[in-house]
Amino acid sequence: MKTLFKIVLVLGLAMMAFSSILGFSVLGFLSDLPHGHLTIDGNDFMWSGMDLADAFGAGLGLMIAFLVMCLVVPLVLLLGLGLPLLILGGLLLAGIVALLSVGAVLGAPAIFVGLIVWLLVRDKPRKPVAPTPAATQATSPSLAAGPAAPTEPSLT
Question: What sign has the CA pseudo-torsion 32, 33, 35, 37?
Answer without folding.
Answer: negative
